[in-house]
């Protein structure tokens, strides 16, 4: 019963929105608003083809590579900055400056430096996605329980052992918040990086359809982006439940008491 209730909550609103959409387009032939049936038909024709191999899979690969690098860099740098006060004071103004620079405005500069390549697109994704992970890691490390921190020093637990058994577990809930934010940013930056002087990718296909007035095809690409975002969200929730099982169990005990 609980599973069925969760499924009903998950699909209830999308079904209602599709019904409203179907009713609004019933009996009309609006060029800019295709009916659900036409969109589904176009979606199957466009994306269940070679475009899936030539555009969609490479885009997803670049996005995942960029997000993975951002997570590794963000956690590593966040641990170092969060545990070293002088380093945090030294880097804080520079980090705030870089964080305020929108990644899309750097794409022309990166194109000049790195050329129009997969590396340029991945670097764009990394630059945009690293900040939520890094800043949340810093805050998570700084918020480590002082009693646990003092206890680890008393037992001479330092180095990698302290990072592995104290800092990462204590900061992991905050780190996961940053990872979740980076997933949505990665999807956005994947599309934007492929709209600039690119000849392949999901973003390139969507802008190509828009410029050629292939409106149903354009909407099918936007729908595919939404489905990819939903898939990433469900994957993240699964990984988070497994990685933070102890944390969620603790919260349930606290709410029960």
Helix content range = over 70%
Number of helices: 11
Class by alpha and beta content:
mainly alpha
The tally of domains stands at 1
Spans of at least 5 consecutive residues with low confidence: none
- Under the CATH scheme, the architecture is Orthogonal Bundle
Could you state the CATH homologous superfamily? MetI-like
Specify Rg, calculated over alpha carbons: 22 Å
Descriptive account of the structure:
This protein is mostly helical and 257 residues long. The protein has one domain: MetI-like (MetI-like fold, Orthogonal Bundle). The protein contains eleven helices and no strands. Helix 3 runs parallel beside helix 6, helix 6 packs across helix 8 and helix 9 runs antiparallel to helix 10. The longest helix is centred in the C-terminal third of the chain and has 36 residues. The mean pLDDT is 86.
Provide a quick synopsis of the model.
With 257 residues, the chain is mainly α.
